[in-house]
Amino acid sequence: MTSAQIDTPHGPARAELHCAAEGRAALLLGHGAGGGIGAPDLVAATRGATAAGVHVALVEQPYRVAGRRAPAPAAQLDTAWLAVAAHLSTLWFADLPLLFGGRSSGARVACRTADAGDAVGVVCLAFPVHPPGKPEKTRQPELDAVRVPTLVVQGESDPFGQPAPAHHRDIVSLPGDHSLKRDPATLSRSVEEWLHRILRPLD
């Protein structure tokens, strides 16, 4: 494991790099709004990705590196994320296919930036379809805008809602809520199997 600090237009971000033996692709994973990169579902997804031969960068947004808990505005999150992706793809993951992902708020960032960042796939953990109790404030369009293969792992009782299916979107429902911490083994296996399937044509 290696840690790197990366300058962005909104202050330094940090990436914790977990290298796979094979290195067939690289997956950038972002944290939730008030949490960090040690969240159980991010740890489980990292385990699954490296088992599939995919390098993982767990990305800490500048506001977290600066010690703030309140998230930055969406536009700042997206700009910082794309700066980190550009840096990593140049210095660490040259010539490798990039995948974007994250949990909750980090999943939204991954969806919004997938096109601009040339991601070949997106991994969403606990995508917050709407604020709890407010289904009219839907974020489903962010998910629908993603044009590449997408994996969504969602808790069956997630108060942030359930994503709608689509032809290029795989949805895995796990027991539990928004934390996705009840079944890390199945989460790891789901990420590993999905990555094998979508990367096989690119190998």
From TrEMBL:
Keywords: Hydrolase
Residue segments, region Disordered: 159-178
Record-level Gene Ontology MF annotations: hydrolase activity
Matching InterPro entries: AB_hydrolase_fold, KANL3/Tex30_Abhydrolase, NSL3/Tex30
Pfam family membership, one: Abhydrolase_11
Domain KANL3/Tex30 alpha/beta hydrolase-like stretches: 24-167
Top-rank lineage group of the source organism: Bacteria
Protein name stated in the entry: Alpha/beta family hydrolase
Organism: Actinokineospora soli
